[in-house]
């Protein structure tokens, strides 16, 4: 006959299982990195640090047996954030190389219009006249 486990005495500290802080931090930073990509100087560093902490948390999870799922989620989210950041940087560079001169000309035109230079208002009216005349 087996006996039921004896509960600890009243007032005695109950042993608690240790958490995996690295896995939690990596997952949180992976989430922030993914959501924060619209502000790249926040999202990109968070994704990089999140990936590092998640990998360390995964190693710790193999030893302690806790936090493996959170570490995996942090790794996946951080990799997705980094991939989207790389794609965004590539698109930015390609876009600037293709349309950089046109963007610069348009900015100069806008500056002339704001300053009311010699052709300021004329540049605004010229496309309208070309449309109707």
Q: What would the keywords be for this entry?
A:
mainly alpha, single chain, 133 residues, rod-shaped
Tell me about this structure:
With 133 residues, the protein is mostly helical. Helices cover 76% and strands 0% of the residues. The chain has 4 helices and no strands. The chain has helices at 21-35, 40-64, 68-115, 120-132. α3 crosses α4. The chain is rod-shaped. The termini are far apart.
Question: How does the SSE layout of this entry go?
Answer:
Blueprint (H helix, E strand, L loop, with lengths): L20 H15 L4 H25 L3 H48 L4 H13 L1
Helix pairs in contact: 1-2, 1-3, 2-3, 3-4
- Helix tally equals 4
Order of helices and strands: HHHH
> Can you give the mean pLDDT?
84
Portion of residues within helices: over 70%
What gyration radius follows from the Cα positions, in whole Å?
A: 29 Å
């Amino acid at each position: 006959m087996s006996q039921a486990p004896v509960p600890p005495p009243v007032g005695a500290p109950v042993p608690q299982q240790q958490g995996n802080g690295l896995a939690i931090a990596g997952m949180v930073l992976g989430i922030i990195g993914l959501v924060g990509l619209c502000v790249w100087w926040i999202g990109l560093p968070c994704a990089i640090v999140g990936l590092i902490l998640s990998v360390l948390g995964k190693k710790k999870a193999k030893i302690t047996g806790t936090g493996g799922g959170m570490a995996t989620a942090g790794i996946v989210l951080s990799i997705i954030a980094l991939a989207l950041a790389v794609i965004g940087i590539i698109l930015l560079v390609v876009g600037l190389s293709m349309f950089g001169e046109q963007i610069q000309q348009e900015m100069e035109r806008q500056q002339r219009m704001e300053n009311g230079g010699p052709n300021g208002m004329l540049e605004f009216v010229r496309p309208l006249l070309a449309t109707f005349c």
